[in-house]
């Protein structure tokens, strides 16, 4: 196995209904099986302040700039209080969304200026060593918006993003595709429009390929239905 003394940062991305949650839990358990400390978190959110901002972003009416500023403010607190300390002590951080979501939702979905988002990204995520904090690996659950909408139907009370039309979610999906094209080594596209166990096989294969997961653990571990 490859040693990574600063820990690992893995994010999961995709439109609502893409099926991330079960697989996030599964990956967390995989690393725990190997004796690793795992920090399971989400964005917006992850800290008391960030969770308060999340409620505003998901439920209050606002323009795209206000939305982006709140998301990055939440991210800054999340990075400082949760992500950076966890990585420093060698933990595995498993996050439901990170900055790719901002470029997909606020950038492509809301038609917000990508150059401004890049400036905010640099301000918020640049570390003391001058490097930009990004996940070591991002799993993008690529699912047609109409399939995601069908999965979400009657599942829960929709927030103001989930209430958007299919055209919005198609733009979000296009935004994720652009991020994948820009960072193909980091962003792994998963075909999420197939059986759950097949998606899981794609995930474990990549973790083994990266040297982060023992193949014996991957073969023995069964994803809960």
**So what's the CATH class?**
Alpha Beta
List the helices and strands in order: EHEHHEHHEHHEHH
Which class do the helix and strand fractions yield? alpha/beta
* Coarse shape: globular
Write the CATH architecture name: 3-Layer(aba) Sandwich
Let me know the number of strands: 5
The H-level CATH homologous superfamily, spelled out, is P-loop containing nucleotide triphosphate hydrolases
What average pLDDT do the residues reach?
Answer: 90
Number of helical segments with 4 or more residues: 9
Main sheet strand line-up: 2-3-1-4-5
Largest sheet: 5 strands, parallel
Low-confidence stretches: none
CATH topology: Rossmann fold
Domains, number: 1
What is the CA-based Rg, rounded?
A: 17 Å
Report the end-to-end length measured between terminal Cα atoms.
Answer: 28 Å
What amount of the residues lies in strands?
5-15%
Q: Give the fraction of residues assigned to helices.
A: 40-55%
Explain what this protein looks like in three dimensions.
- There is one protein chain.
- With 225 residues, this protein is α/β, with parallel strands linked by helices.
- The protein has helices at residues 20-33, 48-59, 64-88, 99-109, 114-125, 145-152, 166-182, 196-209, 215-220; strands spanning 8-13, 38-42, 92-96, 137-142, 187-191.
- The chain has one domain: P-loop containing nucleotide triphosphate hydrolases (Rossmann fold).
- The protein is built from nine helices and five strands.
- Strands 2-3-1-4-5 form a five-stranded parallel β-sheet, sandwiched between helices.
- 53% of the residues lie in helices and 12% in strands.
């Amino acid at each position: 196995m490859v040693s990574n003394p600063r820990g690992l940062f893995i994010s999961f991305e995709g439109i609502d209904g893409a099926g991330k949650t079960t697989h996030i839990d599964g990956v967390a358990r995989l690393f725990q099986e190997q004796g690793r400390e795992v920090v399971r978190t989400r964005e917006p959110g992850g800290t008391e302040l960030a969770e308060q901002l999340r409620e505003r972003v998901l439920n209050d009416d606002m323009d795209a700039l206000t939305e982006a500023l709140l998301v990055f403010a939440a991210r800054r607190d999340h990075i400082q209080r949760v992500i950076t300390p966890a990585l420093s002590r060698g933990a595995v951080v498993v996050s439901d969304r990170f900055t790719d979501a901002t470029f997909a939702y606020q950038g492509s979905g809301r038609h917000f200026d990508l150059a401004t988002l890049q400036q905010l990204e640099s301000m918020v995520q640049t570390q003391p060593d001058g490097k930009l904090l990004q996940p070591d690996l991002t799993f993008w659950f690529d699912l047609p918006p109409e399939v995601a909408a069908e999965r979400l139907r009657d599942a829960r009370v929709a927030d103001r993003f989930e209430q958007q039309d299919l055209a919005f979610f198609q733009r979000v999906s296009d935004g994720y595709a652009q991020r994948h094209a820009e960072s193909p080594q980091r962003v792994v596209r998963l075909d999420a429009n197939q059986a759950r166990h097949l998606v899981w096989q794609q995930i474990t294969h990549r973790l083994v390929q990266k040297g982060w997961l023992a193949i014996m653990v991957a073969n023995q571990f069964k994803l809960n239905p």
